[in-house]
Amino acid sequence: MQVPLNAANGQKHAFVSWKSATDPSTGNYSMGVDNEAAPQIVIWEKATKRWRSGYFDGRVFNGVSNMTNTLNYGFKTNTDGKGGKYFTFTVADSSEKMRFQITWDGIEKQYRWNDSEKQWNVLRYEPFNVCDLYNRCGNFGVCSPSDPPTCTCMKGFDVKYLDQWRNGNWSGGCKRLTPLKAETNNTNSTTGEDVGEDGFLTLRSMKLPDSAQLVTDGTSSDDCKSTCQQKTNCTAYTYVLGIGCLNWHGELVDVQQFVNGGNTLYIRLAASELKESKRTKIIVIISAVVAGLICLGLIVWLVWRFKGKLRVLPTATSASHRKSSNHVPVFDPSKSLEFSAEFSGSAEGIIEGSQGPEFPLYNFTCISISTKNFSEENKLGQGGFGPVYKGKLLNGQEIAVKRLSRKSGQGLEEFKNEMILIAKLQHRNLVRLMGCSIHGDEKLLVYEYMPNRSLDCFLFDPAKQILLDWEKRFSIIEGIARGLLYLHRDSRLRIIHRDLKASNILLDEDMNPKISDFGLARIFGGNQNEANTNRVVGTYGYMSPEYAMEGLFSVKSDVYSFGVLLLEIVSGRRNTSFRHSDDTSLIGYAWHLWNEDKAIELVDPSIRDSTLTDEAMRCIHIGMLCVQDSAATGQTCPLWC
């Protein structure tokens, strides 16, 4: 599919509906591309907009909430070499048949042909819900389909027509409560009274308003903000990767709040409105701190109150009874809670995690028996944390046990970090922590057992890498991307893994990837984007330059590691296997091929004949974007998710 983008008027009506379901004459609805600031698909009812997709950022339309978790949808903008620009859609799998349609009643549908059933199946349709209808909540209103009421006013605005609003008619929208500085100064020009500078309020996960203006000199978020501040009629701005700086002048229309996805929008408010917002935040923070201190005091008192009961040691009689009995209890909270003094600081996290079956505390004797007393034949491998053993519980369940080594470069801090952190994470592409065991100096983490062990066992073994055909490798890449996206954006905590590599990707019986080893991971606050450490940890070859040299890490550090891992999966070669060649690393070799338009030669020769070229080139392209040297130009997780 190819639709020309007309720069002159910004709109192109490419599809026209039937008049009715049975009448093929020209109907009331049309669909096409509006290219005023950035391409977006629009449905018109005659001359009025009915729905719009939001702006296209080179990957997805940011106004379609369910387009955030796929690597590629097939949409792209191209030029014909003669100044003409086209908006295209190409099916990733050339064997598939797809079509788009604007129905007689104004619904845009995407179909895929089902050859076995000999019929067209609907993949998606828009508008999808009431909030997708154009400007459902009026100017400066925000539509939220998941939160009653459906429409609310932005911070600093109030309902324009209250009677209509109460009756469910939100089209009147909202009005500004406090005038901006320029308007206030004009009003007070006779008295000489002045007010504070306007500021910007951050709104996250938003469908960006319509009628944006592209600012060509806004090359960063700070530049974009500065440009908007200098224009008295600029009411909002944002900076979007793949598009650039967008400004809005006048009223904001067709805004929607998403649960996931969307973009961050910065709206202009009077100084007094922002001060009120800050005061409210301070009150909330103080209240939370006071409540936290009360809870902490209560927990400390409870731990002290029951300290004697938790430290009851087994008697010689009970120990001998266990030796003579074939039944060893799997869980033993009394033994597992025999913490050393230095570990007691995390007792809150352990007790919290141990409530119920989701995070049990295992009996050390049971774990020792299941691993045949940590025998060499049961040893699965050795990591920075310590050795990992295979175990089999009395009920037949297979487990993997990580044992903290006294000689480990990592230690108690990493043990506590992994235990408390991963117990709170639940995702199909993260390894599941089943529990822990603490017995004197022995500290163990119990995981689900992965029968296919780690990705590097297949990827870098010439005898096994042929088992990873392209379909499996692409599935593994998607799984790792989904897991990393969850850590960075979708989990309750923002997690930076800091040690993403092939040996930390485990494979289950169906070769599904699971990210493991969170001993070095760090938790970021909701508004925190970057941190610095004096202790650089991880694996060289997978570290981003700014982290290895300056100790700066962020979600982009993980994205860099993902890029290296992606290139390794495509090529079947380690990043560090090029030390004695002209190219010092796999990254250098990939850039060399890329610059010579030979990137497809990077694909593992053992699977090259069966590889889908478009998918492989897309993966290589994403990998190259992820490993750019500069963190400022490096990509964040949404680029490849």
Considering the chains and any ligands shown, give keywords for the structure:
641 residues, alpha+beta, Phosphorylase Kinase, domain 1, 31 strands, 27% helix, globular, disordered C terminus
Structural class: alpha+beta
Q: What is the CATH first-level class name of the largest domain?
A: Mainly Alpha
Determine Rg (CA atoms, Å): 29 Å
State the end-to-end distance: 24 Å
Biggest sheet character: 8 strands, mixed
Strand proportion: 15-25%
- Uncertain runs are 308-326, 333-357, 525-529, 531-538, 547-551, 630-641
List the total number of helices. Answer: 16
Q: Any idea how many domains?
A: 4
Query: What general form does the structure show?
Result: globular
CATH architecture of the largest domain: Orthogonal Bundle
CATH topology of the largest domain: the name is Transferase(Phosphotransferase), domain 1
How helical, in percent, are the residues? 25-40%
The tally of strands reads 31
Fourth CATH level, the homologous superfamily of the largest domain = Transferase(Phosphotransferase) domain 1
Average pLDDT for all residues = 78
- In what order do the strands lie side by side in the largest sheet? 12-11-19-15-20-17-18-16
